[in-house]
């Protein structure tokens, strides 16, 4: 059998390396979902949810885009660093889980600040660093930094315009939206496309969040 027919990574890395690499992506996806059900779901229910969702949802999603035999991969669709397999799948799963599990307690809905701002900043820095490490090409690294930094700055500017002051939480939120938006196409888009992604990745989530907060949605 021709080895090249079994995929571009066949034999290029040890199997243990590829298994660990994919396990890390799967773990990150579950952490993102956990943020949506934090304070809503019983821990034992979460322990049951994790293996079921990984087996019947994430596995098929990742295979469809990252395997050369996946139907999305065969269509020529590219997910450079996990925008579809990680962010989209975790976002849909988190929103669906939050809807069916129900709202948080009233005290958490009224005020739910981070427990430790310094740890939040440390985690944000690790996320940003991990984003550029994951993007292992020069164009991808440049686009990742540019999109993330611009998205962060735009979020801060909107906070200053509408609330008269910036916030550390807003800085981190802007950074994360920038990382998420550039992830699927970091190594394949030009600078002008990155600029558009910067603007929309910041403004749309900001206005959406403000709209939801002001309406006091039951999902909060």
Amount of beta strand: under 5%
Number of helices in the DSSP assignment? 9
Spans of at least 5 consecutive residues with low confidence: 1-6
Can you count the beta strands? Answer: 0
By secondary-structure content and strand pairing, the structural class works out as mainly alpha
What does this structure look like?
This protein has 2 domains: 1-103, no CATH class; 113-220, no CATH class. With 220 residues, it is mostly helical. Helix content is 72%, strand content 0%. Mean pLDDT is 78; it is low at 1-6. It starts with 14 loop residues before the first helix and ends in a 5-residue tail after the last helix. Helix 2 runs antiparallel to helix 4 (83-101), helix 6 (117-134) packs antiparallel against helix 7 (138-163) and helix 7 (138-163) packs parallel to helix 9.
């Amino acid at each position: 059998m021709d080895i090249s027919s079994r995929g571009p990574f066949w034999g290029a890395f040890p199997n243990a390396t590829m298994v660990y690499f994919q396990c890390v992506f799967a773990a990150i996806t579950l952490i993102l979902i956990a943020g949506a059900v934090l304070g809503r779901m019983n821990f034992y229910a979460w322990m049951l949810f994790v293996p079921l969702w990984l087996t019947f949802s994430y596995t098929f999603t990742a295979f469809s885009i990252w395997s050369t035999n996946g139907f999305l991969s065969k269509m020529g669709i590219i997910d450079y660093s996990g925008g579809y397999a990680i962010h989209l799948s975790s976002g849909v799963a988190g929103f669906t889980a939050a809807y069916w599990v129900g709202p948080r307690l009233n005290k958490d809905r009224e005020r739910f600040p981070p427990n430790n701002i310094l740890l939040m900043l440390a985690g944000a820095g690790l996320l940003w660093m991990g984003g550029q490490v994951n993007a292992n090409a020069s164009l991808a690294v440049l686009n990742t930094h540019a999109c993330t930094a611009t998205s962060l700055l735009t979020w801060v500017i909107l906070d200053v315009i509408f609330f008269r002051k910036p916030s550390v939480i807003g800085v981190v939120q802007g950074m994360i939206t920038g990382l998420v938006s550039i992830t699927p196409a970091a190594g394949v888009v030009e600078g002008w496309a990155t600029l558009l992604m910067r603007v929309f990745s910041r403004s749309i989530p900001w206005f959406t969040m403000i709209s939801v907060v002001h309406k006091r949605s039951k999902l909060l």
